Amino acid sequence: MIELKSISKSYGNIVSLRDISFKIHEGEIFGLLGPNGAGKSTTVNIINTLLKPDSGHIYIDGINILSHPDECKMMMGVVPQEIALYDNLTALENLMFWGGLYNVPKAQLRINAADILELVGLSGRKNDRIKTFSGGMKRRINIACSILHKPKILVMDEPTAGVDPQNRNHIFDVIENLNNEGMTIIYTTHYMEEAERLCDTIAIIDTGSIRAHGTMDELKKISGARDIITLTLSGISEELVNSIRDEHSFTVLSSSPKSIKLECDNISDQVSTLVNHVEKTGAVIKNINTRGANLESVFLKLTGKKLRD
Ligand code: ADP
């Protein structure tokens, strides 16, 4: 549905995007995950036609957005990072204003606005001025303003920045509801928990390059990130450590007289084999701690650094 081909963008000497390419399929929640300065905003601003790349092409449903920006704009809703609302207008007045910019006929706009206020859970506050809203509620109205023309694609740039957990969950519900109705979502974030919770596919971006792209399972495979298990034992011998290394598909990350830390492909499949093996040697297991591979370990494997360095 959306295809970026060899997009590059620099600001003077600063290279913001280096030859990035990826595809987003219809109906996906696509996450663009990377640390601050990675190039996420530049990418989404190129997709939403605010910025022009130095080179490369972008297609939406086969239409070249660089040569047909107006046509493509109508297919998209854009939720900017900064809240763009009029404080002295009510929620409904803000919606009517922003919807008017997309040329939605007034009668239809009223219907859409009522539906969308319901969707974001703020129907009861429609006649209150925005200045009386909390930050999280403003974010929800900000999202509402971007979908009044019923776009096929919603482009969101860090929509939960500065939002408390309750409002964040509300925003996730809104995104999931829109996606269930068929909307394709492009979502940038530097929070891996958000990408993991929300996104069907994730592209990891760092210093202007896409490091990997795929589902969570695909990213684990691509990066080689594995599950980790730590056993606390009484009586760890060198023989035990060697036998685990020899007989099972574990990598020994570290061992001490009291504990052993291992890496494996799939904890849930392999933990019982490991426990049986250890118990047969007479060692007593005091504690088992497991941690599945997650985006944090994927990011670390791919880039050699933590997402929030
Ligand atoms: P992110 O959204 O991942 O935080 P950005 O796309 O905003 O990253 O920025 C990517 C890089 O481009 C950064 O090095 C940033 O400083 C630079 N950059 C972004 N916008 C501008 C601009 N208007 N002028 C100069 N440099 C910019």
**Can you tell me the CATH class of the largest domain?**
Alpha Beta
Q: CATH-wise, what's the superfamily of the largest domain? A: P-loop containing nucleotide triphosphate hydrolases
Count of beta strands: 14
Number of helices in the DSSP assignment: 11
Give the cofactors and ligands: adenosine-5'-diphosphate
- Helix share, percent: 25-40%
Give the number of domains. 2
- Biggest β-sheet description: 6 strands, mixed
Query: SSE string, helix = H, strand = E?
Result: EEEHEEHEHHHEHEHEEHEHEEHEH
- Calculate the terminal CA-CA distance, rounded to whole Å: 34 Å
Radius of gyration: 24 Å
What CATH architecture label of the largest domain applies? Answer: 3-Layer(aba) Sandwich
Q: What fold name goes in the CATH topology slot of the largest domain?
A: Rossmann fold
What would you say this structure looks like, in words?
The chain is of the alpha/beta class and 309 residues long. It has two domains: 2-221, Rossmann fold, CATH 3.40.50; 226-292, Alpha-Beta Plaits, CATH 3.30.70.1560. Helix content is 38%, strand content 28%. The protein has helices spanning 40-47, 69-75, 91-101, 106-119, 135-146, 165-180, 192-198, 216-223, 238-247, 267-280, 295-303, and strands at 2-11, 14-24, 29-33, 55-60, 63-64, 76-79, 153-157, 184-189, 201-206, 209-214, 227-234, 251-255, 259-264, 284-291. The radius of gyration is 24 Å and the shape is elongated. Bound molecules: adenosine-5'-diphosphate. Adenosine-5'-diphosphate (ADP) binds next to strand 2 and helix 1.
